[in-house]
Amino acid sequence: MYLTVQETAEYLSTSEKKVAALIMEGKIRAVHDGNDYLINKEQFFTHFEQVEKYQRMIQDYLNEPIPDDIDVKDED
Looking at the record's lineage, which domain of life comes first (predicted)? Predict the structure, then answer.
């Protein structure tokens, strides 16, 4: 499914200027049909999956208790 720049901005909750800038930088793949840019919505699914995966990994890391190290010596 292809989206216009305006629809993509709404989908990503950002501005149309930001979407246009990302297209020009090559960070969002788009097809120019002569008048408008058309963006394939499928390209964002992988990105969102990776973001969720890394958020879970970070949360798991933060929730992991700090192990007691029996070799730690209190040297005052």
Answer: Bacteria
